Amino acid sequence: MQQDDTHSSKSTYLLSEMTWPEARRRFKEVDIALLPVGAIEQHGPHLPLDTDAFDADYLARQVAAACSHPKPLVFPLISYGVSYHHDDFTGTISITNDTLSRMVYEIGMSAAKNGITKLVIINGHGGNIPTLKFAAQMINRDARIFTTVDTGETSDTDLDSICETNNDVHAGEIETSTSLYVRPELVDMKKAKKFVPEFSIKYLNFSAKRSVEWFARTSRISPNGVLGDPTIATAEKGEKMWKIMIRNLVELIESLKNMSLQEIYEKRF
Ligand SMILES: [Zn+2]
Q1: Strands (E), the chain
Q2: What is the spatial distance between Cα 165 and Cα 186, in angstroms, rounded to a whole number?
Q3: Distance from residue 15's CA to the centre of ligand 1 (Å)
Q4: Residue 207 C-alpha to ligand 1 middle, in angstroms?
Q5: Is 78 strand, coil or helix?
Q6: What are φ and ψ of residue 205, in 5° steps?
Q7: Which of 84, 82, 33, 41 has the alpha carbon at shortest distance from 175?
Q8: How far apart are CA 47 and CA 189, in angstroms?
Q9: Model pTM greater than 0.85?
Q10: Taking 70 as the threshold, does the pLDDT of residue 234 lie above it?
Q11: What's the pLDDT tens digit per position in 100-145?
Q12: Which of 7, 101, 129, 151 is surrounded by the fewest CB atoms within 10 Å?
């Protein structure tokens, strides 16, 4: 799963595995960090509760592994997220927006003190979006560093061309395919059931181009927690999806890495 150089001290990018002298050296070499954030919540009757947490961490590590030297630093995963909307399904362990935003804010401020000037939050869970954007905005306000949150914005358009389901938002074709590729042993396809929600108001459809963002408890709109069609998921689709997500994020990170803050804000193409 991880590339060979994950553990080589020369090229390590996992902050958690560095000694402090090594971290001091790496923070001088590179000023960009990836912070994966996930969730522990129901993912239908066929996927594990840590799907979003694992995926965010996996993506951050794969992106760093695929980047040129000096590679971006990967911060330890924040496993828990804002999942109150899945509360009616057992096993969902949720923290509040306040707690998550506070934690991300403080990690970002501490990262900035260590010399990070670009922080890319790799978010595995849609329910975290408002909170993470709030935290990113506050980090930018107070530390004056570049902050961004990617919840798939860099690849959504490309993934749409592979995904056949409309409104595939949770434990459906995409998440089941990506899980089948990296952790097939944790996917129970015999229990995978399609549930694609549709709404009478077109602006409420999740994948509509002109949709509003709105909030609902999942149990109100899906009996088994699935919002999408996991039955047509395959490992092959998952492999393609991962490749696209990694490729696009690597492109973003490499561009950011090679620019000063001044250039990011001012350079025009
Ligand atoms: Zn998920």
Answers
A1: 32-37, 73-74, 118-123, 146-150
A2: 22
A3: 25
A4: 16
A5: strand
A6: -65, 125
A7: 41
A8: 9
A9: yes
A10: yes
A11: 999 999 999 999 999 999 999 999 999 999 999 999 999 999 999 9
A12: 7
Alpha carbon distance 149, 136 (integer Å): 7
List of domains in the chain:
9-262 (3.40.50.10310)
Q: State both tokens at 35.
A: 């912070």
Q: Count the Cβ atoms, other than its own, within 10 Å of residue 2.
A: 12
Nearest in space to 186 (alpha carbons), one of 47, 52, 54: 47
Distance from residue 171's CA to the centre of ligand 1 (Å): 6
For residue 215, give the DSSP letter. Answer: -
Residue identified by tokens 């509509």 is: 208
- Spacing, Cα 140 to ligand 1 middle (Å): 27
pLDDT, tens digit (0-9, with 9 covering 90-100), for 151-188: 999 999 999 899 998 878 999 999 999 999 999 999 99
The pLDDT of residue 2 is above 50 = no
Give the Cβ contact number of residue 60 at 10 Å.
Answer: 27
Give 138 Cα–ligand 1 centroid separation in angstroms: 26
- 225 closest CA partner among 129, 123, 89, 79: 89
Residue 218 has pLDDT above 80, yes or no: yes
Euclidean distance between CA atoms 106 and 54, whole angstroms: 22
Confidence of residue 6 (pLDDT cuts 50, 70, 90): very low
Antiparallel, parallel or unpaired: β 32-37 and 73-74: parallel
For residue 67, what is the enclosing H or E element? none
